[in-house]
Amino acid sequence: MKKKSHPLLGLHSLLLLIFIYVPILLIIVYSFNNTRLSGDWKGFTFEWYTSLLENRHVMEALTNSLTVAVISTIAATLLGTLAALSLRNVGKRWKGGMNGLMYLPVVIPDIIMGLSLLVLFSQMHIPLGKATVIIAHITFSMSYVYVVVTARLAGMGRQLEEAAADLGATGWKTFRYVTLPQMMPGIISGALIAFTMSLDDFMVSFFVAGPSSTTLPIYIYGQVKRGISPEINALCTLLILVSVVLILLAQFILNRGKGQKKHKMLPI
């Protein structure tokens, strides 16, 4: 017999969704406002979206964000995948501790991460700039890739790999033709999540960015201190859209990979 949930739980969920999404919805709506007054609706316009393309500072910040996101995502995906493969064969005695270390950047507060990296760079006399931002983003993005790829590996099992080995396949051929194709949905999803995290990051970037390495979130923060304009709302709306699309795409790829795995395991 199916147990019915209490009505107050549904009301609580509804209030929670309203609390989370109404502010985001207001940003999106006022990005089309035909006036610079943020709280006064004067009509619908796309002017603020077109003006973004003509804003040199926005384009420079966008270029920095994309450069950092692409480079850090490639490096974090490679390192996170290799870490997941390496720890797959570690014994239970050490696996728990190593997993904890890999999960630490996910749970540690961003302000602690940013401050610790700033101290490290200053102690090593590394000038702050685009390179330090990339290193910082690799540091925390790698853990997200590791988590996704590890979950994918845990659901794979070793039956196909053992069958390939029994049929005479070498270790490299087994990895290339059996393990890697099964891992690929997790790797792609982890890369998309890493790219999203890098593109949206403010706190860590704020600590380790130099004067010539302003990213979009840092630029938005600097502009908000002067007042919230429809142009900033438009920029935030585009970031929200990109983030949502990438996260949904990552989830779709993961779910599709699970579906394909189940289909392959069906008896003929």
Automatic annotation (TrEMBL):
PROSITE patterns: ABC_TM1. It is found in: Cell membrane. Residues 62-250 form the ABC transmembrane type-1 domain. The chain crosses the membrane at residues 12-32, 66-88, 100-121, 133-154, 175-196, 202-222, 234-254. GO terms for cellular component: plasma membrane. Keywords: Cell membrane, Membrane, Transmembrane, Transmembrane helix, Transport. SUPFAM superfamilies: MetI-like. It holds the Pfam family BPD_transp_1. Its main location: membrane. InterPro entries: Bact_Polyamine_Transport, MetI-like, MetI-like_sf. CDD domains: TM_PBP2. GO terms for biological process: transmembrane transport. It is a multi-pass membrane protein. Belongs to the binding-protein-dependent transport system permease family. CysTW subfamily. This is Spermidine/putrescine ABC transporter permease. It comes from Paenibacillus albilobatus. The lineage of its organism: Bacteria, Bacillati, Bacillota, Bacilli, Bacillales.
